UniProtKB/TrEMBL annotation:
Taxonomy, superkingdom: Bacteria
GO BP terms: response to antibiotic
The protein, known as: Erythromycin esterase family protein
InterPro entries linked: Emycin_Estase, Hydrolase/PRTase-associated, UCP036794_erythomycin
Amino acid sequence: MKTFLPTHPLRSAADLDAVLSAIGDARIVLLGEASHGTHEYYTWRAALSKRLIQEKGFNFIAVEGDWPDCFDVNCAIKQDQKAYGSAAKLLQTFSRWPTWMWGNWEIAALVDWLHAHNQPRPMTERIGFYGLDVYSLWDSLQEILQFVNKQGDGAVAAAQQAFRCFEPYGDDPQEYAQAVAFVSDDCEDEVTHMLQTLRRQLRNTTASTGLERETAFAAEQNALVAVNAERYYRAMIKGGPASWNVRDGHMMETLTRLLDLHGPDSKAIIWEHNTHIGDARFTDMARDNTINIGQLAREQYGRDQVFAVGFGSYQGSVIAGKRWGAPFEVMPVPNAIRGSWEELLHKQLQGENALLLSTELKGTVAMKQTFGHRAIGVVYRPQFEQFGNYVPSLMAERYDAFLFIDQTQALHPLPTKADEHTPPDMYPWTE
């Protein structure tokens, strides 16, 4: 096997030509990140996303974020006027820890670009911004109540019943999960009934404009979040891969719904952490029967319709917390460990950045040999990273392309105060 890997220089957005060509006519492009707080991952994803939108007609960006918060951004960037004031003010909607993931200056710049790009276009052709995640149980219930009360329809009673079921737990998913873990008295029936009732009601309602159609879609999506979040929190307390699989299954279901909403020729850009978008079948996740959206998308739409781009770096700094729910801080990212994917690229490239395409890696170690690939979560302890931050991966199968940035720096968070409720701490640091 060849140790030397063919690469393309990566210095400016023009150097993305090779990956644009490799993407071809793919319908879904998944863009990863090897941390949740690195400046370069956000800016390179934005650069590639802009080119996909401008040159290949992609319709929306969907991210590892909560549906209600992201839908606020979606509505704002589709307005004719910049009614949201500043992007920094708009992104204060991301007040659940970790606030910096979407509340940062890098995303603020993208929000302004999306709004400017959308302005001269008809509403049906404006680029959307959506959340794929499942954490927003209480926010989604509030959104449903507001929607059905405005509509005055038959779903009001079902929504109120579901909301009352969760009220005793005080907006705390951890308390709900612990309370129902080993008893049958949960809220599964209530949220399922709410979703079914809302869907029946919406089938009998004809939206007169694209905006009304999207608003109705958002209401149904919030009900779906409630159903899957309830499943997620029940599974979480029991451990194992079940809750992770519920979460990524929800993300895939949401992606499918968004593609259907935008029509048969629609195209999606996904921003998620590498452990979500890199096909789990080619990592050690497969041993535990853990799936992810990268695997599910390939299985559902076919590998030729799905293109996954991973990211990584050799050293630098990152935004993270020392423990779950802790204030964010700038942390050092040490040199990648010996024998890792990142160390191999650093040695070959001698400090340069590069783009790799999996189609060009046949006959090399990337196709046959498993490498540890660094993944930094929202909780990070640099001094211990060799014990849990490297995911064994067959790199040329896990991804279709890889962006390597040798030296990276920390993301630039907005000064948003986190609310008191955080999702339960259930993942290893690499999540």
